[in-house]
Each structure stands twice: as structure tokens, then as C-alpha cells.
Known about the structure:
The mean pLDDT is 97. The chain is an alpha/beta fold. β12 (213-218), α7 and β13 (234-237) form a beta-alpha-beta unit. Strands 3, 5, 6, 9, 10, 17 and 18 form a seven-stranded mixed β-sheet that branches. Strands 13-12-11-14-15-16 form a six-stranded parallel β-sheet, with helices on both faces. The chain has helices at residues 41-48, 96-99, 110-114, 161-164, 170-181, 197-208, 221-230, 242-249, 265-273, 298-302, 317-329, 348-356; strands at residues 2-8, 16-22, 29-38, 58-59, 63-71, 83-86, 125-127, 130-134, 144-148, 152-154, 189-193, 213-218, 234-237, 257-260, 281-284, 306-309, 339-343, 362-366. The site of nicotinamide-adenine-dinucleotide has 28 residues, from α5, α6 and β12.
Amino acid sequence: MQIRAAVLEEFGAPLSVQDVDLEEPRAGEALVRLEACGVCHTDLYTASGADPSGYAPTVLGHEGAGVVERVGPGVQSLGPGDHVVTMFSPQCRECVHCRSPRTNLCLAIRAQQNLGYLPDGTTRLSRGGEPIRHFMGTSTFAEYAVLPEIALAKVMPEAPLDRACLFACGLSTGLGAAMYTAKVEPGSTCVVFGAGMVGLGAVAGCRLQGAERIVCFDLSEDRLALARGQGATDTLAGGDDAVEQVLDMTGGFGADYTFEATGNVAVMAQAVEAARMGWGLCTVVGVAGKGETLDIVPRLLITGRRVCGSSFGGVKGRDQVPQLVERYMAGEIDVDAFISHRLTLDDVNRGFELMEAQDGIRSVIGF
Ligand SMILES: NC(=O)c1ccc[n+]([C@@H]2O[C@H](COP(=O)([O-])OP(=O)(O)OC[C@H]3O[C@@H](n4cnc5c(N)ncnc54)[C@H](O)[C@@H]3O)[C@@H](O)[C@H]2O)c1
Ligand SMILES: [Zn+2]
Ligand SMILES: [Zn+2]
């Protein structure tokens, strides 16, 4: 079939919205009609050429939600009409990582996915016979997409898909960092650095876990206001004295849990230093630039602070994204507050401009 899609032709150049060919799903795959897709920093990062593992041509987009149209042979967990959220972080439920409760990093299709291919090493996307790669295994800046069954989370049909799409990346990453990676305990003191989509999600996750105090740092007063809306009890301007401020607020000890959601390695160091002696856990969620390193004085670790990272919030997508969407539908997560702009696919480059200008939290493309 022919579909409209936003193609990255050349790094650093605007995406080109055009007709491309999409083949039918093969074994273990499903054809999804996209209803909505968020515009995320990772799309922009790859489009800019900064990502060393980027490739072109490819159809970008990974924060999608839609409806299954058809499935290929052997697909058992999904059928036509199912509402789904796309997963750049799949869950096969069989590999050694999926069988462990300790990680969400499914091993099943990693190698091919990282290269932009579906699990059998080919693409369903093409143009005039030339293959077009599947960005992050998802390619959801398009009217339709073919994805592996294991990369689709089936969500309750009542959930509006133009909100559910945010659970495909940023929102689940933040929520999950608090809920599944750090496993914040009730009554805790938490500090979140950064109040973008991810940091705001972490604030909401700390609240859902029953944290008593949630401190959020950002440079933008507008974003700090959003953090208060998600449950932050204290909001402060980020800067060189952030650690001192946390120590002052916690009797000199530091916080039970800290979260880094800026991608800045100096802020990551602050997040480690702001974690409590004895048991403070620092969860790094932000993605640093290529080649950058995190500087930690080892004494901070010897005296009981711990540091961990979190990819997609530690969320096992097919099992836990539907649960997060249920909590949203139960009124526990305010998703509307994150959606600042609504765009059409033809406006996708405007979504990048808004993100670069830090205008709003999320642009959502409707199809
Ligand atoms: N680990 C994962 O799976 C995963 C998934 C998605 C995104 N990310 C990463 O998470 C990070 C955050 O993503 P986002 O979409 O929320 O980005 P964003 O750019 O919207 O938000 C970052 C926020 O950090 C704030 N900030 C900058 N410097 C600061 C400082 N010194 N102190 C306090 N706040 C400061 C900015 O004002 C901004 O609001 C990025 O690095 C992104 O690449 C990671
Ligand atoms: Zn797996
Ligand atoms: Zn993303």
C-alpha cells in the first residue's frame, strides 16, 4: 500500500513528507493504522545527525498509538481492531532478560532493530524499490506502520489514543524511573532534576509511589509550574547551588531518591551528590552527549549512595504500559497537561522547531 510518511533523507535537513510503499505484515508482525504520534527529542537527535548510530533514509517517529488493521502469520496476542501503543523497547517474554524481573532490556530483536530492520533483517518500507529503514523499529511518523508483535502494547480501547501515545516513550520513561527502576517507597524524599516530559513523568511517578516530599529543579518557571501540577511539593531554579539546597532541606543528609532528566553530565553529578548518605539512590535517565563521562567521587559510593540508569523507565512494555494507561484512565495521571501543541503530519518539522525553542512539552501529531 501507499502511505504518507515523514522521511529523513539527509541529516540536518527538514524531514520530507511524501508517499512511500508499505508491504503487508509478515510472520510475527502487525499492520497498525496510526492515530497519533508524539514528537520526541530522540527523533530530533537522529534527524540532526548528532546520533552516531543514525541512518537514512528512514521514517522517523517512535511515540505512536493506533489500531491494528491486519496481522501476519503466527501472531497470537493481537488482532484487528486492537488499540496499541508502539514500543521501541519490545518485550518478547521469552529471552533471559524478559524472564528476569530485574530488567526490561529485551534481547530478542536488538541487533536488527538498531540497524533499522524488522526482526527478519528486511524492511517493509520502500520507495521505488529502494528500501527505507524502520527507525527504532517503529517509524510512526506515518499513516500506517508494520511492527513486530512484541513491540506493541495492547491498551484498553476506551483510552484516547492521542494521549495514550505519550506512554510510548517520554511519559512511561519518567513514570517508570520512579515506579519500576527506583521503586520509590512511600514517605520518601525525592529530587527530580529537569522538568521536561521525562522529569515531569518522574515527579508523577514519585507521587504515585506515595513520596512525601518531591523537589523539582528546572531552569524554566513555566516548567516548574507544570511540576507542581504533577505533584512536586518544592520547585527550585537549577544551578550550581542545587546540591547545597537539597542538603539544607534534608538536615544535611540528602534525598532518598534522586532522578536526573536533563542529559547534562554536570547535573548528573549533582544528582549523585544530592542522594542521601547510607541509602540514597540516584537514577540517571538523561542521555549524555557522545563521549561525555560522569565524574563521581568514589567516597560518595562507599558511604552508601548508589547510582543506576534507566532505559524506558525499566518498563516491561507489553505488561506494564497497559497498566499505566489504566491508571491514567482512572484519573491518577494528568496526561493532558503534557500536550502543548497538536500538529498534522505535514507540520512535523514545526514540531522540531517547537522542541528546539522549548515551547511547550509535547507536540502530538494527529492522523
Ligand atoms: N533513558 C531513556 O530511556 C530516555 C527516554 C527518553 C528521553 N531520555 C532523555 O531524558 C532527558 C530528558 O528528556 P526530556 O524530553 O524531558 O527533555 P527536555 O529537554 O524537554 O527537558 C530537560 C529539562 O532539563 C532542564 N534543565 C537543563 N539544565 C538544567 C539544570 N542545570 N538544572 C535543572 N534543570 C535543567 C531544562 O530546562 C528542561 O526543562 C534527555 O536527555 C533525553 O534524551 C531518556
Ligand atoms: Zn525478551
Ligand atoms: Zn522518545
